[in-house]
Design goal:
The protein contains 3 helices and 6 strands. It is α+β, with helices and mostly antiparallel strands and about 160 residues long. The protein has a 6-stranded mixed beta sheet. It is globular and about 45 Å long.
């Protein structure tokens, strides 16, 4: 498995896609420490209405997230890229401790340093309640999405 810093800017279409998939796989591990290692020590985040800075805050945030967003499964899709920036759209599904299911729809803007670590992440996310029978993501989790899974070809 490639380390986050193995994929460095400047990005091209191949490396941008690799970076997006590496991020998706890390998040689907639900391992806050593993995910945090893709971010610079002083990384700045906006996640919905929360503002975070640094790996410690990121790890704490993710631990809380996955304590409340159960059976989490995420799909990311490359939207665009430049030398040091990547934009993605994503969807993820989860249920809360009360058993209510949701699909989250969002966009992220990423900025990377020269070593391949993300120094800035801006995430806009909306949750939509769904019935359990409306779920789309069923692979074994935690773990990566199967390589032959279609991802999110449309935004419905």
């Amino acid at each position: 498995m490639a380390l986050p810093t193995d994929i460095r800017p400047p990005f091209n279409s191949t490396t941008a896609l690799q970076k997006v998939r590496a991020a998706e796989d890390a998040w689907n591990s639900r391992d806050p420490r593993r995910v945090s290692l893709a971010y610079s020590i002083d990384s700045q985040w906006r996640n919905r209405s929360e503002f975070l800075q640094g790996r410690d805050q990121i790890q704490h945030f993710l631990s809380n997230k996955w304590d409340n967003e159960l059976d989490y499964r995420l799909v990311k899709s490359l939207w665009s890229f430049t030398d040091h920036h990547i934009a993605v759209r994503f969807q993820y599904e989860y249920h809360n401790p009360q058993g209510e299911w949701f699909r989250a729809y969002g966009n992220e803007l990423w900025e990377f340093d020269e070593t391949g670590l993300m120094r800035r992440r801006e995430a806009s996310i909306n949750d939509v309640p769904i019935d359990e029978n409306e779920r789309k993501f069923f692979w074994d989790a935690p773990g990566p999405r199967p390589i032959d899974d279609a991802g999110i070809p449309d935004v419905r």
